[in-house]
Amino acid sequence: MPDSLLSADQLPPEAFTLVEAVRDLAEATLMTDVAAAERAAITAEIAALTERLAALVRTDPVLLVRHSDGSFEHLTQAGTGRLNPQAPRLHWLTPTGEMAYDASPDETGEVLARCVLSRAHIGPPGRAHGGVVATILDQVVGFAAAAVGKAGMTAGLDIRYKGATPLQVPLMVHARYTHSEGRKHFATGEVRADGVITASALGVFIGHPQRSESQ
């Protein structure tokens, strides 16, 4: 990563509270039953707010920051980006259950995350959309490999849906790196609701080719 990356502590707290407000707005938009005139008035207000936000924009949607321990974080990616309001509300946890900004593994090589899906993620009645569950698993399983130095692009994700993944309740997502075969890295994971597995995945990730010393 380049040395010119923004330091994580340079980001104002308001950047994150804005994202949470937009997530709440999306869910409220989904659930609203206000009159047409009120919707029109709100639409005008939102358009004005959008114009204000667009008054100064970055040239690149990717926003990487560096933390004090030297690690970096991609704040705008769609899986867990903390500055992407379309990303699920997913938070990394330490082995003791404390909040963390990354997926640092514990002594077993496992990573843990907590996620609460809103009504904006609904698929079949009363449950989350399978594609959203797949996004969560892709992210967490991929980070399990990356956390032990085996990062790569997703080449395959074999998902098994075992039951309904509920909305508006804490979901625990566990994942662990298992092994590598050359540039192919393998990891598995599962989503649990109240201790019951609702979906599991086997991920295959292709790492970058190793450079030779002569290059």
Report what the structure shows.
The protein is an alpha+beta fold and 215 residues long. Helix content is 26%, strand content 30%. It has helices spanning 13-31, 36-53, 130-147; strands at residues 6-7, 64-66, 72-74, 89-93, 99-100, 110-116, 153-161, 170-181, 184-193, 196-206. The strands form 2 sheets. It has a 7-stranded antiparallel beta sheet with strand order 5-4-6-8-9-10-7, with helices on one face. The chain has a 3-stranded mixed beta sheet with strand order 1-2-3, with no helix packed on it. β8 (170-181) and β9 (184-193) form a beta hairpin. The longest helix is centred in the N-terminal third of the chain and has 19 residues, at 13-31. It starts with 5 loop residues before the first strand and ends in a 9-residue tail after the last strand.
Strand arrangement across the biggest beta sheet: 5-4-6-8-9-10-7
Main structural class = alpha+beta
Cα-atom Rg, whole angstroms?
A: 19 Å
Shape summary: globular
- What percentage of the residues does DSSP assign to strands (E)? 25-35%
**Secondary-structure element series:** EHHEEEEEHEEEE
Unreliable spans: 211-215
Largest sheet, in brief, is: 7 strands, antiparallel
Summarize model confidence as the mean pLDDT: 91
Helix content: 25-40%
What separation lies between the terminal Cα atoms? 19 Å
Number of beta strands:
10
Number of helices: 3
